[in-house]
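Lecture notes, unit on protein representations.

Consider one protein chain, 185 amino acids long.
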Amino acid sequence: MAIESGDFKTGLTLLIDGDPWVVLDFQHVKPGKGAAILSTKMKNLRTGSTQERNFNANTKFEAANIERKAATFSYSADGVYYFMDGDTYETYEVSETNLEEKKGYIIDSLEVVLMMYDGQVLDITLPSTVEMTVADTTPAIKGAPSTQTKVATTNTGLSIRVPQFIDQGEKILVNTNDGTYSGRA
């Protein structure tokens, strides 16, 4: 299926030079002279590299047929994360390098969506919030304003800012899009 520049949206997956790419950001630019340009920021789903690329506004792209499959995190070992399909009990491996900024949110039995291309897992989609346990934080400061925050480390090693009243051992909700505290669990 051909995709035109007018059909672009964030999250769109395209096939460029034989590799699947996802559109992270885009903008239509009309310079004073010449044809319009489609300025994009894209991520190669095979390599994980991010590039800013410009295309002619009338360029047509081929859609990448990305299969999405629900799975549950099982365990990790030697830099590989293992996910299991709950219906077929098939196990999928994802290299730690493909999960750079996401690995801090992966907890036992986490439900994710695997993004697959040609039978290979390229990336995962996390739920919008994840319930985590505060492994380490400083005690609350008595009389501190309720808007004041402190650093807390979760059970996965992720460091986030939390309100003063959060104590060690508490369960909290963490937003996976920006790594912020969302509330108590």
